[in-house]
Amino acid sequence: MASHAPPARYLFIYLLLRIAVSINACRKNTKTQKEKPELLAPVGNLTNLKIAIDAGADAVYFGLKMYSLRASTSQSKNFTLEDLEKVKSQCQKAGVKRYLTMNSIIYDRELEKVEETIQEVAKKNLADAIICWDLAVVNLCRKYHLPIHISTQGSVSNSESVKFYQSLGAERIILARELDLKQIKNIIDETGIEAEVFVHGAMCVSVSGRCLMSQFLFGKSANRGQCIHPCRRTYTVRDSQEGYELEVDNNKVLSAKDLCALPFLDKLMGSGIKSFKIEGRNRDPRYVDKVTRVYRKAIDTLWEKTKEGQKAELSEEEKNEFLEELKKVYNKGFSRGFYFGTPTADDFSRVEHSQAKEMKHLAGVIKHYYRGPSVAEVELVSDLAAGDTLVIIGKTTGLEEFKLESMEVENQRIKGAGKGQTVGIKVPSRVRKNDEVYVIKKRENRDNPS
Question: Is-contact 177 165, C-beta < 8 A?
Fold first, then answer.
């Protein structure tokens, strides 16, 4: 009687396939196991770099003055290749990762310069990874052996797209903002990719930021890093024939509220996401400091609860405390984004200006620092009074925020001083000449959100 047993070679192939499937499953499970996510902070200049590091960022992302979606001709915004040596030094000392964004549209005329830039970055180890999506940039990163993180501009929103970029060598994908939490988890489970998502900051009304409004109105392309955000303004709908105007309840129909994932951060931490990203490379130093510190504390609080076997969620008291801190700096109101479904009318802002509860006003500039008594000599450009909350900001100093207990003029204690006077103030740590001193004041919103 003929044997029905499979030939040995088929059995061997079957066993190999089973082993491969098991290895792949283990890899996926390893990726989705709970691990402390990376906190990724935005830096637009060397001052904000120091601030982000001091505030507890695990990694920072930054751009050059070209090829970035936050391109700028300002001397105080973005970096030169020479600056990246300073970034490298500071970050390596602090154990902080560095990601360079090169995620704008690239044209043929720019390819030679782009290659020179990438070659220089690779040669001098000026970044731990390149954030990109244009396949020309991806190919150049492969050529010079630079790790690749696919930008959210790639609109990666499904597993097959992830697998394609993985085949090109991508280590990480910054997933499309238009995904909900369930879709994100499915992609991670299916592919095992390192996933990065935004947790806080401005949202764009256009899919993955592909907007032509700034280009159409002002000749400043959002896809070349030049957007001036005309969507944030007030618009009126007018009948061009009769001149009638439509009065709508919300005339900021293009202006989305800012994303804030703080209230559901625990759900993101349980989904296998590798990196939590804060938007804001063009934001001011206090925004970078405040938002990074809040998310650092929230992540650490949740992580400690997980290690101690507690339920990994923030109490209502903790959430409220963190949210109140976030509301002190720039925001257009807060939204959950796409994490729990498509945004509704409630996710669009009814105000034109920032809803920050606090604003900083320049009070003066430091002229000298006396190390022994830890006193700074400040030349005032506006009023200052004992009891004020002060912020000192500088490229080397970073950011120091404290309450002014007292100040002196010629060794005499005074309660207040004004423009043109030079005063001595006690400071909590070392500051430097030319650091700027700001007073923090409560802010009355210019818009009525009701």
Answer: no
Contact status, residue 79 vs residue 87, Cβ threshold 8 Å: yes
Q: State pTM to two decimals.
A: 0.83
Sheet containing 375-380, strands listed edge to edge, beginning at the edge strand earlier in sequence: 398-403, 389-394, 436-442, 358-370, 375-380, 422-426, 407-409, 412-414
Q: How far apart, in Å, are the Cα atoms of 143 and each of 109, 139, 232?
A: 19, 6, 41
pLDDT in tens, 170-220: 999 999 999 999 999 999 999 999 999 999 998 776 666 666 666 666 777
Give CA separation, 221 vs 41, 69, 217, 252, 426, in Å.
Answer: 24, 10, 10, 21, 47
pLDDT tens track for 402-442: 999 989 998 899 999 999 999 999 999 999 999 999 999 99
d(CA 398, CA 387): 22
Q: Do β-strands 422-426 and 407-409 pair in parallel, antiparallel, or remain unpaired?
A: antiparallel
Distance in angstroms (rounded) separating the CA atoms of residues 377 and 370: 8
Residue pair 403/387 in contact (Cβ under 8 Å)? The answer is yes
CA distance 146 to 125: 9
Q: Who contacts 349 (Cβ-Cβ below 8 Å, separation ≥6)?
A: 232, 252, 255, 256, 257, 332, 333
Structural contact between residues 142 and 169, judged by C-beta atoms closer than 8 angstroms: yes
